[in-house]
Amino acid sequence: MHESQPINVDSDTSDEQSACIALMVTAEREFVAFTRAVTELFGHEQARLSAEDWLNEVASRPCLPGPTTRAWRQVTVAALARLTIRMAADLQDSVRATDF
What is the pLDDT of residues 61-75, one digit of tens each? Predict the structure, then answer.
């Protein structure tokens, strides 16, 4: 189901450092792919807002997602949901503005 793992940032063991590095690399790849796609589809402003959403989603979780892409994809899907809501609200506002 949902794989989470707490990270001990004070550890000095090589295995835990390798796990942290793998986790960071996976998270970075997911974040970059998401923000790049949003930039291409919706522009820089929406990408900036979506990047903030993505980071806020990570910060709101009690544990970091696991080291797999699938675990980080859940963060991306949550940020994508926020983007969808924002875009729908913007569209609705623009429709209202043209109704007058």
Answer: 999 898 888 989 999
Which residue type sits at 38?
V
Is the CB of residue 34 less than 8 Å from the CB of residue 76? yes
CA distance 100 to 89: 18
Contact predicate 1/66, CB 8 Å: no
Q: What's the domain count of the chain? A: 1
Contact 28, 51 (CB under 8 A): no
* CA R_g for the chain: 17
Reduced to 3 states (helix: H, G, I; strand: E, B; else coil), residue 8 is coil
Whether residue 93 has pLDDT greater than 80: no
The domain containing residue 67 runs over which residues? 4-99
Dist. CA 95–CA 20, nearest whole Å:
47
SS3 9: coil
Rounded to two decimals, the pTM is: 0.77
Residue 8 has pLDDT above 60, yes or no: no
